[in-house]
Amino acid sequence: xxxxxxxxxxxxxxxxxxxxxxxxxxxxxxxxxxxxxxxxxxxxxxxxxxxxxxxxxxxxxxxxxxxxxxxxxxxxxxxxxxxxxxxxxxxxxxxxxxxxxxxxxxxxxxxxxxxxxxxxxxxxxxxxxxxxxxxxxxxxxxxxxxxxxxxxxxxxxxxxxxxxxxxxxxxxxxxxxxxxxxxxxxxxxxxxxxxxxxxxxxxxxxxxxxxxxxxxxxxxxxxxxxxxxxxxxxxxxxxxxxxxxxxxxxxxxxxxxxxxxxxxxxxxxxxxxxxxxxxxxxxxxxxxxxxxxxxxxxxxxxxxxxxxxxxxxxxxxxxxxxxxxxxxxxxxxxxxxxxxxxxxxxxxxxxxxxxxxxxxxxxxxxxxxxxxxxxxxxxxxxxxxxxxxxxxxxxxxxxxxxxxxxxxxxxxxxxxxxxxxxxxxxxxxxxxxxxxxxxxxxxxxxxxxxxxxxxxxxxxxxxxxxxxxxxxxxxxxxxxxxxxxxxxxxxxxxxxxxxxxxxxxxxxxxxxxxxxxxxxxxxxxxxxxxxxxxxxxxxxxxxxxxxxxxxxxxxxxxxxxxxxxxxxxxxxx
Length: 573
Ligand code: 9G3
Fold this sequence. Notes:
With 573 residues, this protein is of the alpha+beta class. It has 15 helices and 31 strands. A hairpin with a 5-residue loop joins strand 5 and strand 6. The longest helix is centred in the first third of the chain and has 21 residues. The model has no long low-confidence stretch (mean pLDDT 94).
């Protein structure tokens, strides 16, 4: 490809609102251009990378037995009403009316469409299992699109759906998708972790895993054990205190009852901690939550936070939210900041780390008063003791009980779910089994953020000068740069190298622009093409400068040696 014709202009500066490195670099290098908030054009360079990622996804999905199809983006609202989700999603679901005034949604995902399709096509167990997938544009009207392709409103997703007759069948489908995902993320050159996750609104009756690209810009926090293979999204990560002051027999004989202390206007944990001169871990934090409409008190240690997803899952609740200050005041009899577990008329749920405390300070449910020497199990009886908190750095691993939990930031690039019969029941996708009985198909669903991978790899693999594409997904594999296009010998050698590499099936970009060398090298660094051949004065002795983008190491080689080096390097990738 001759760069003088390439539809891509590089930018020196980036818009101030581009915070993520990948977003800045993809704009500057001419890979994407924003049309509207969260809505992007992939310029030729970006599109070439995206298509390579798609090809890898397609190959691995086909290898795992998936059958590719393409479903519409326009989905009749009736399907979402039938599944009961039409009103579950708010403004994020983009709705429109056709010319006959019929309601549609622009597809954010395709459970409803694919389940209806399979319901109409398959009735017998003989036609199952089947896994269908598509690579298609999804629409989600994010309130705050950000970080370029990482959180867009129109994005490319591979979404797959498996239909089985048994739960064992689903386990098999799930496993083969899980393995296909591991192969895909390895092939695109991404550093990732598969972590246990929470199924969220999609529901489903089985496990779910998220595939996380490790990156500081990631919105998710993942937790992994320093010893065993345990890894989970913080939403779900089991918390087990390594530092809990385990209750000792003498602690129980503490004769003094809890003591009420005057704590004028001392409301926050920090204020109480310094006022009483005790560590936050010796304070019992009492928060009032509304769980499916009813107020409850949740206790966590002062140095911990309530994990609302664990709270909802443990209580089997649909809706969980922190009570407002009026409600807190009404149910505790005191303003926020003085709530405590003693004498409450609402159920009290205690995190395990609180139950493990020998004693602690807590609100007295009276303005300007707290108790000290409060002993869980003696001065109050929790209705339930469970893991209600976010894990913290240094917690013990709940799986192997040897290792410590480590925290990382991650970008969710894949998510696999065991859905069960939630959608097949709702939409009537049933099959007749060997005994003639009608049963709901057992489903799984599996997503990969194809366009998100572009940004995730760029986040993981860039330097200050530009993105450094892994060869497997780079827009071109070699960038040939004649230093002076007016120099006959340089252009002749450059054209020859271009021809020979192309013959080897290698994708080459030739910078045939009449530009200053500095401009050419800066643009080449921005593009992030893995290998570069600089054809300069040394062309006279048929020598070139071989440059590896990742390390920017330069080496003068004879033209033949340079070609051999590139061919060998690319074969190795
Ligand atoms: C919506 C809107 C946003 C959504 C959903 C529905 C996320 C929604 C979860 C999934 C689950 C899986 C198949 C591929 C893998 C992920 N955001 N989810 O269902 F209406 Cl506006 O999409 N779907």
